[in-house]
Amino acid sequence: MDATNDNASKALLPAGMNDTLPPHAAFEASVVEKIMSRFGAHGYDRVKPPLLEFEENLLRGPGEAMAHQTFRLMDPVSQRMMGLRADITPQVARIATTRLGGAPRPLRLSYAGQILRIKGTQLRADRQFGQVGVELIGADSPVADAEIILMAAAVLGELGIDTMSVDLCLPTLVPAVCRDLDLDRATESEIRAALDRKDAAGIASLSESIGEQNARLFSDLLAATGPATETIDTLNAMDLGKLTRTEFDCLKAVVDVLNAEAPDLALTIDVVENRGWEYHTGVTYTFFTRGIRGELGTGGRYGTSTADSAEDVEPATGLTLFMDTLLRAIPASDDPNRVYLPAGTPRKQADKLRAEGWITVPALEDTADEPAEALRLGCKFILIDGKPQGLAPSD
């Protein structure tokens, strides 16, 4: 085998796995720290869960939804099955209800780390990528949902994303309608499947089994999608049952807070969307930005079981930002302060430059053409007579 083919074989990685090279790795790290710093300024304390956990702990509560995406392996020490995390939210929920079970509520936690999934998706082919997120645990209030959304919008704006929109969903609305109409589980499943397909004809075809008026209600819910203010008005005018009205009021309360606090934030609503929100128990939200394929982040309201009982559920809401998508949306910056240090530059002088914010690249030996060497190493400045001097590409 020739050297070229041998090197290519050594660089081959499993599908969905990628090396992150300079300068992208440093850029990602800087963005993560900026986000975490802003979350911390809003009172969210950082936690760091492990990559691996025992399977039964990792996949309980909100983690159950990620069971099909979780790698399993046997722990050679305990002989118990472990899971490699496919999402960090369930781990933070576990920490909140066990290690921090006695901490004052509401509990605000933040996290950043890598996750691994069995399969990629059409929107996200990578199986390993970074997550950065927050969880607000112990608060069952529309104000809590709005806090997460407003904080995330502010952080994304500070990163230079100024065309974002937030899509709000309410996966609990359709089940509430079915309970108000006293429909059985089999019928609810048929309705749910048609709504997930956005199949208006499929909903209409159920009129014989559920009644024409009821079918029309589901058709109207399917059509009630679009800008938040108009959609809220449309839903408010519908003849909704008691349980459905309660769910709708929660959504409306969140929208009211968002409109009052951030009137320029673009909000849309789709109340029948359920895919991806299987374990959520209230308002959910997805962040998008123009020109970027995929979600910047997703989140919403859920419940997490306490350490004492799986039946004792603590309310929570949170958001996860996906670094692979987010980095495509943020204009990458180069290293404008990268300065080349000729061989023999005193260490104290280099220390002083770094303290001033310069990135120093020292020469290991004398070079005949130092400006050309500086440019070759990606430096826009060279140290001359103790001061950084700018370099032109033609130098």
List the helices and strands and how they pair.
Blueprint: H1 3-11, H2 24-41, E1 45-46, E2 52-54, H3 55-58, E3 71-74, E4 81-84, H4 89-97, E5 107-116, E6 128-137, H5 142-158, E7 164-169, H6 173-180, H7 185-196, H8 200-204, H9 207-210, H10 212-223, E8 225-227, H11 228-236, H12 242-261, E9 266-270, E10 280-289, E11 297-305, E12 313-322, H13 323-329, E13 338-341, H14 347-355, E14 359-362, H15 370-376, E15 381-384, E16 387-390
Parallel strand pairs: 1-5, 7-9, 13-14, 13-15
Antiparallel strand pairs: 2-4, 3-4, 5-6, 6-12, 7-10, 8-9, 10-11, 11-12, 15-16
Helix pairs in contact: 5-12, 6-12
Word description of this protein:
- This protein starts with a helix and ends in a 5-residue tail after the last strand.
- Helix 5 (142-158) packs parallel to helix 12 and helix 6 runs antiparallel to helix 12 (242-261).
- The strands form three sheets. Strands 1-5-6-12-11-10-7-9-8 form a nine-stranded mixed sheet. A four-stranded mixed sheet has the order 14-13-15-16, sandwiched between helices.
- The relative contact order is 0.12.
- It has helices at 3-11, 24-41, 55-58, 89-97, 142-158, 173-180, 185-196, 200-204, 207-210, 212-223, 228-236, 242-261, 323-329, 347-355, 370-376; strands at residues 45-46, 52-54, 71-74, 81-84, 107-116, 128-137, 164-169, 225-227, 266-270, 280-289, 297-305, 313-322, 338-341, 359-362, 381-384, 387-390.
- With 395 residues, it is an alpha+beta fold.
- The protein has three domains: 22-161 and 275-333, Bira Bifunctional Protein, Domain 2 (BirA Bifunctional Protein, domain 2), CATH 3.30.930; 172-272, no CATH class; 338-390.
- The chain is built from 15 helices and 16 strands.
- The model has no long low-confidence stretch (mean pLDDT 92).
- Helices cover 38% and strands 23% of the residues.
